[in-house]
Amino acid sequence: MASTSVSRTVPASPQQVWDLIGGFASLPDWLPYIPESTALDGGRTRRLTNPEGETIVERLVAFSDAERHYSYAILEAPFPVTGYLSTLRVHAIPGQENAAEVQWSGSFTPDGVTDEQAVDLFAGIYRDGLDALHKTLA
């Protein structure tokens, strides 16, 4: 199993950040790679569409509004991995009311690619996503 984690400080309070990203179907509000999200199964599953028209289906496996994080598993995707589990988390930064740290991490088993290739893929997705979030909040 491989894993990766990317963090980024963003220019908004932790609650403002969570209000934007904390909804499980809210990816299109801040992530250009996902222009469409459809909630299924009472909101516990989301069907995402990327710009190429590919479908990604993810299932919410843990959620804490109070602690500002959620975890999800990929059920179906065009990625070369299995057993994918990811967490998106918002942290307060002591002494900085109008800034927050966002951490996006994941673990997965590469399928047909090396650990390094799978880690590079998701580290790039997380980094680009957090850069887009920063731009949205700036």
From TrEMBL:
Originating species: Amycolatopsis halotolerans
Pfam family, one: Polyketide_cyc2
Organism placement in taxonomy: Bacteria, Bacillati, Actinomycetota, Actinomycetes, Pseudonocardiales
Protein name as catalogued: SRPBCC family protein
